[in-house]
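Hi D.,

Good news: the full-assembly prediction came through. Inputs first.
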Amino acid sequence: MNHRLPPADGEVLDRTKALTFTWNGKKLEGFEGDTITSALMANGHHIIGRSMKYHRPRGVLTADFWDPNTTVQVGDEPNVRASHRKLEAGMQVVAQNVWPSLSFDIKAANGLVGRFLTAGFYYKTFMKPAALWPRYEHVLAKFAPGGEVDLDTPHGRYDKRFAHPDVVVAGGGPAGLSAAIAAAEAGSSVMLVEHEHHVGGHLLWGTEEDRARVADLTAAALAAGVEILTNSTVTGRYEDNWIAILQRNHPGVVERLIKARAKTLVVAAGTIERPYVFEGNDLPGVMTSGAVRRLITMYGVKPGKQAVVFSANESGEAAIDDLRRAGVSIARVVDALTGERIVSTKGSKKRVKEVLLEDGAKIKCDLVVTAVGWTTPTSLLNMAGDRPVYDADAARFFPSGAPDNVLATGGMVGDGSLDDLIEHGRVTGELAAGRAAVVRHRLQVATARAETVDEAEPGYLADERTPLDRWPHPELFRASTHGIVDYSEDVSSKDLYSAAAEGFDSVELIKRFTTATMGPSQGKLETVNTVAVLAQARGDSIGDVGTTVWRPPYAPISLGALAGRINEPTRLSVIQPWHEANGATPILAGQWVRPDHYGDPLSEVRNTRENVGIIDVTPLGKLDLQGPDVANLLSLLYTNKWMQLPIGSVRYGIMCAEDGVVLDDGVTARLDEEHYLMTTTSSGAARIWSWIEMWLQTERPEWQVHVTPVTTGLTSINIAGPKSRALLGRLTDIDLDNEAFPYMRVRQGLIAGIEQCIAWRIGFTGELSYEIHVPSGHGLAVWERLLAEGADLGVKPFGLEAQRIMRLEKGHFIVGQDTDGLSKAPVTGLDPLLKFDKDDWAGLPEVRWSLESGDHPVIVACQPDDRSIVPEEAAQILRSGTTEIVGRITSSRMSPTLERSICLAQVSKEFADAGTSLEVLLVDGRRITATVIEHHAHFDPEGERLRG
Amino acid sequence: MGKNKPPAKYSAAGLLWRGLRKQSWPRVWREPEFKNSYDVVIIGGGVHGLATAYYLAANHGITDIAVVDRAYLGSGGSGRNTAIVRSNYLTPEGVAFYDRSLDLYKSMSNDLNLNVMFSERGHLTLAHTDSALRTMHWRAEVNKLQGIDSSVIDPAEIKRLTPSLDVSTNTRYPIMGALYHPPGGTIRHDAVVWGYARGADAYGVDLFQQTEVLDILTEGDHGSGRVTGVRTNKGDISTPIVVNCTAGWASTISAMVDVQLPITTHPLQAAVTEPVKTFLPTVVVSGSLHVYVSQTDRGELVFGASVDPVATYNMGGTLEFTEELASHVLELMPGISKMRLLRQWAGLCDMTPDYSPVMGPTPVAGFYVDVGWGTYGFKAGPVSGEQMAACVATGETPHLIKPFELSRFTEGNLVGEKGAAAVGH
Amino acid sequence: MLLVPCPNCGPRNAADLSYNGESRPRPDPQTCSPEEWRTYLYLRDNPSGWLVESWYCSSGCRKHFTIERHTLTGELRTPILPGSKPGATKGSTK
Amino acid sequence: MASSITHIEPMPKASVRAAADTNAAAALGLTFGSAERRGDTLVVRIRPDEWYLLGDGAAPMVHGLDLTGYASTVDITHARHAVRVTGSHAAETLAKLCSADFGDAMTPNGAAWGNSIAGVTCDLVRDDHNGERSYLLLFDGSFASYVLRTLEDAAAEF
Ligand SMILES: Cc1cc2nc3c(=O)[nH]c(=O)nc-3n(C[C@H](O)[C@H](O)[C@H](O)COP(=O)(O)OP(=O)(O)OC[C@H]3O[C@@H](n4cnc5c(N)ncnc54)[C@H](O)[C@@H]3O)c2cc1C
Ligand SMILES: NC(=O)c1ccc[n+]([C@@H]2O[C@H](COP(=O)([O-])OP(=O)(O)OC[C@H]3O[C@@H](n4cnc5c(N)ncnc54)[C@H](O)[C@@H]3O)[C@@H](O)[C@H]2O)c1
Ligand SMILES: Cc1cc2nc3c(=O)[nH]c(=O)nc-3n(C[C@H](O)[C@H](O)[C@H](O)COP(=O)(O)O)c2cc1C
Ligand SMILES: [Zn+2]
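Then the structure:
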């Protein structure tokens, strides 16, 4: 550690804890508290990466999170900010963007031809011959910067939480700390979020006295109950102060995303020091004053031996003191305030060696420090609608006005002594707390429990803060030479000049053409310089050029943190554990996990047709409807008639949307005078519930109907097959005699000893069948009883696939499979269900016009002439011998009952008549023929089985 | 007009030449003087407006055109889209239309003498359910009949083409298959915009940035009548023909002549990650998971989703978008959890009920629309420009865009693209 | 995330509600022309400005209500339950 | 363990729907969004026109109601499952999965409201036990194993 300074006050190192890590495979040591960068520099490694385009060697520039030159790979993690990430024992740190090695990089040859690789050069070349572009592209892609993703990286434990603080303070410098304390003391709940590992902001690398102030402020904040989050970033401010906070140091998790609904947001993000543009400004050894101050004071690192300091402000002055203290000799102070200027630097490949000044002086050095001014990170304020305004006297942008619930303080809004900053923070904190109290009060009143709020609304506080001063600062952006403006994108001021000359002369166009500000630091370092150079090139003012749009996130955020724990709701019937224990293959149907089959769907079909089968149909949507107007409601939503449905009957219906397209179908039973049970498709359950509420609340508010979803309250089991009556008969007191309980009727009674069960006779499978609905707490018991009691009858469970086959044999269509987003009701071919003598029903006009025009497709059943061929669902039906599409197969299966392939298809009307031969194009390109049959049902068209 | 001087030729040799002589390139387009009268005014300087102007000039010799945009060229959807190009649509109308666009894209770098970096890398639409797979088959079959390279592939083939995808079966949304469309890919969206702008400018078309249309001047009854000019923040322009190419803002322009559109404006959001070495060779789309992703040559992953549910003109973007995006992307590619999102943004989409555009004449004479581009309109830029130019120049609606006329809504002849998943691209 | 003031529940995250879009009157299905009906089905004002639209408080009180929203700024005002009178601005916290 | 998560099934539950002018509404009372213990039954006014009766007394209480007028009742014992989250970290656990403000100001003891938990629509009742934080969660029973698993995962850090 040859560049390590002796221990000193202010350092954040624990020198008793040495940590071993590797750098490009070489073993090195640092201390607990080091960043990767400080540890590398302490070991004499000052080249940490290479630039994106020209692969120039790069060293520390700002020594903080935004440093564009110190991005490294750590193990399987790419793009780690080495100047922010704390060193850990065993870290394997590798330089990125270098090939074959950091010290020798072949792509650096790009630098030699740099003159030709001006911004946007690729738009102007590689066009001819066209066939070669893919190859060029391949080569360009190899130059992609950044680290490497290890595709086997596991999704670690990331977490999330919601929060409802009164006040969120972004930034833990003196202004932010002071605002947080004041707000908390005024009665607000406060979260203080600091991007760095320690609160204190710029005071951390300040004087002993500064650090004592930080300690005092921190103690006061804790005492006031402020929740302090360090190594955490406010990454975004969204509508209505919805604040995203990334916490990187929560125990037990990799990272945590906090979503806070703040009543007031205080932005105290301070300022970011901006680099200076001149020839050679990206040579290793050229740094900002903030960088050397951090390195020396916080990390005990000596940044060089002999320095030239170009200073326009007190930060430069302070850096000189720090450098002297660290034993760095000051070769020359270039005083910007007296008009002195740096022109350029020269260096070896590895380090700056000499500085040329405007007065012609050439000074030898290995460190060039610039202190040329600040950038205001207005990002969070801009997300709230603020537009930054340039102040030429202070040479930086300032916020111009955010909504009432967002307040800025500290260096972002002005300058001042430490006491001034703290005072401005304090007043801002009080204002934030006062406004938060109003919002809190209104929220309490607006929620339902308003009666519990006794106090009167607090008065709304006007912003009467005394603005901070704005100290004059020279406008120093660029020397008389050109240099790098965007380090991470390798964009120079020359590129900006030539782009402007080509006509890309607005700030947004130049950004897109040159990619300036589009790299990993997103303009934190480069926006102002970009704008300043463009203004120069245009002969315009910085204020007129304006800035590009700042967008979230404030600092890059991992996909892992955004995803958090991946929670995907799934729904299970109470019988699902039984299904799984009994060999069911699960299938996902929407949110439901259901049995697709229990090994052999075809034998499940055969058994059901011959004996009896049971299927768990719990996911079927079920709505309990009560009230005097249920029949009116049903008439309005279904296409058919409902006013005369007798108690004890069920009826099938289809529902249309207002454009006449089939929305859902199902049966509804009348259980009692004013009590009905409606079923919907499984996937339609939620949609139909809100559809009904919409009609009841907005179109027919005078109707009295109570709708309650009971889908999972009732376990639904369909008992199907010729022996279903025998089976159910063993378990129920309901009279199952065909006369007493005919087809399409509903009965209530005792099943397997359970009261209040509902049974109805319907037949999706085409068999004699009873669908029973039992209170779900007993669902599994009833299922098991059915299997036990029916063993001698041959009862077997069947799954979704067998049901699909049987319904196809029976020719029942499925909404969304046999119909699509444009299928109006007449497509189903169920014309008798469309009742035009009713006054009104959803979709009525469109259905009528569609039927009248008669040019809609229809669903038909058809059978391939070669009974062994099962066309794919989606196979197209063509006009014979042509490629004109006249329909498509929508459902298709081999029927175990008929021992032949069977289909449903949607065809144009002209092909819908029984006996029509259809030409079907199989996916493999063969054309086969199929014949339209008379009924939709391939099997038992008269329905004798289900009525029997 | 006399202005049409071909633009400075871009080439590698030119690059070298100017590099050696330290000479800069001439402007891509002029800063024209504001005139008070034009033959045609096109509102919207996105790909649609600029392509229409370009083809009016190039194919029909009409060059007295003003293209006006209230911000910078490409500031709308054209500058903020994820630039996915494909032609494997669901309906024959859609397929024929988008395939023509793909053809125009293929020769564009040459035609416009500007590299638009069309990367024909292959487009995968994943199916996670039976019914999605059925739709994929349906699309593939329709595509094949029209000679489009499009087929359904199985998980093993998906893995071979895109190793970062998790094709195991024990996931919440197992990948059951995909519609594979080898000619699909991505393009440098900005380059397309600049290419058309530069090309149109060379023919003498005047491009006005920072010029906002405040009203459309008409004679006769509102809602019928005829167009006489437009009012802008820079002054009035008289013109007999106005073409509305404002995508997300289409309704605001049409409202100026009382033409109601079947459009609602919804934000569509996108995001990029920090760059990493390239690992994702194809464009991957998952309709059920509402996400799509591709990797640029610079190494960033570019993500998109489906539109936000609430209609708004606010382009602020939401946190929820990034949360859902991340969780869904990680379900598809679990290995990238440590990659970081760098920037999110939003654009406005002019959504129609049948996921198809609205193109051609309106009841107001001289007022044409080329709108309803939803989430898929970038890829249609070239063909739309070509066809709208023909429509305006001849007064007849060409057959390629006939199915997309505004009148189809009142006539009840919607286009069947609604059958395809909401995230199309 | 937008906070939507439900007239019953007070301000709620937009994700807790469902959005039903521009509210518009339903023509009489017996007497309307295809033109009128399809205008109701498909055509929208879609203004960049104030818009009356309907929301459903799907995870809260389960009531439909209308509200005015400014589609550019996101401001919301005057939520109304169907059948009740305007002015119930209890929900607003702005 | 600082918070306990219990699936308290079976628990009798009834929903009563009643318009403002009915006797049932008058008998059940309460402000919308609040809950009260009456004997062994927790009465919750969960919607402006809907009350939950939770606990062994639910059925008798329904029985005693005058349901004339625009009023009705449904037994939701099986339709909705109840989970109780109790303990010093109950609110923090829920705050990881639910966007509601669990602070005393917004949701004091006795507060009841509809929300969602980890993507599942859910009714919540703050029902402290002997001064200890406790929440009752009611949601569609088919989500029970998902909700329990997710809650336990969220609580693991405490
Ligand atoms: C995030 C996102 C991703 C997308 N991804 C894809 C994709 O992968 N593939 C694809 O094909 N499509 C995609 N799209 C859709 C595509 O971007 C658009 O459909 C397409 O760019 C529309 O182009 P345009 O020229 O019609 O309109 P725009 O490019 O939006 O141009 C409209 C212009 O009109 C201007 N304007 C508006 N009002 C006025 C006025 N009053 N006066 C003057 N000018 C005005 C605007 O400033 C704007 O520049 C995506 C869209 C978004 C937002
Ligand atoms: N920045 C410097 O190097 C420096 C040096 C000397 C003096 N100053 C002066 O100090 C004053 C600034 O004091 P101050 O208290 O306003 O700021 P500060 O710079 O002391 O502290 C601001 C803090 O906010 C944090 N931050 C920024 N954005 C954040 C986000 N989105 N989330 C979480 N944390 C975030 C930063 O990490 C920083 O620690 C100014 O007048 C400035 O000119 C600054
Ligand atoms: C395909 C594509 C790739 C992009 N890549 C980047 C990127 O690498 N870095 C970046 O900062 N922005 C990138 N952007 C986003 C733009 O910076 C910008 O956010 C977007 O064009 C919207 O404009 P606005 O943010 O100015 O509103 C990209 C945009 C697109 C469409
Ligand atoms: Zn509500």
